[in-house]
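Handout, section B. The chain below has 420 residues.
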Amino acid sequence: MEKREGYKKTKIGWIPEDWDVVQFKNIVGLNRQKINSKDNGHHKCIELEHIDQGSGKLLGHAMTEGKSSIKTPFKPGDTLFGKLRPYLMKYCYPTFEGVCSTEIFVFRPKLDADSRFVFNIVQTEGFIANAVSKSFGTKMPRTNWSIVGDYSLPLPPLPEQQKIASILTTVDDKISSIEYQIQQTEQLKKGLMEKLLTEGIGHTEFKETKIGRIPKGWDVVKIFDVVEKIQDGNYGADYPKADEMLPTGVPFLTSAVISRNSRVDTSKLKYISKEKHELLKKAHLKKHDVLFTNRGANVGQVAINPDFLNGANIGPQLTLLRCKDKLMDYQILFFYLQSPIFNKILKSVDSGSAMNFLSIKTTGNFLVILPPLEEQKQIATILSTVDDKIEVLNQKKTHYQILKKGLSQQLLTGQMRVKI
């Protein structure tokens, strides 16, 4: 029989000798108290939409405002976990007292459980998988207390729980610090775009135009005027079916690859055969093409096609904009399409519907600024420097998220021990 020094074999695998196998309900209680917010004054209220997916981050809260609604109260030290669609991984650790939706569990740690340790347990792949696999309901799957309460886990003594939680919280704090830096840098970028794309560099004379006040030496033109090609991807009978998507081949970009920070997310690339690529001829990409999301909830999001995706293909949710390089710098068009100026133009035609669609004609007729080419390049250099800083911070954030995941796996199972 296999032996491991300092460990014992259990029904959930090898764990340290001084740890126990317990059920989740042994270390937390479920707060079943319900109150009518109308009868209990004004409270900070957390709904599912206030909890970020998969990060544990609280995005905000509402106020009950004395309206009649049944809620579950919580207090600092409780862990909140969304029971509706548990695969969305909505959990948080509030630092204030309030109430929450009845679609959210309120877990309250027992005396022999550290509250932060509990919060880290609900983030683990095993806990989530258990809640998801045993959910009930087709359209609106939910988990219940019996399912999550019966989940088996390894439990260290309280001092070790506290040490583990402290380590993981330190990493969480580092991630939060980087997120704050990203937020501040994005605000800087937004301010710079608003200034540079309306005032330029060193101008003293301005004029009023259809898109607002701009330097006298600039023009306002249509996108059609500054691109040599504007084209959305193929659709209809030739569009790749699910079974035609391959693990490798010619990259095929859909709107899903355009990330919130205006980059191509390579983890979401799909691939098609060379034969299918040749059949779908109308939208083969070149490096520096600007990719514009033309429909759906993310309409208007943009990215620059990177060098390594030269020759890739796109789906109908994307429109490629290929600039006339002697007239418009591709980076200026890219930044302009992210700017507050263009957002106002976009909102004037965006219905807000997931079915919203911006045709080639509509997109091509959008008005854009046209500074002298040399000034375009100067503006692009400034904004690219800020963009590069945001990208470095995002990479740093990803590093710490991977570190957190690895540490959680090792520390919460006892594979890595901590000194008390």
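Note. Residues 160 and 420 are 6 Å apart (CA to CA). Compare this with the example in section A.
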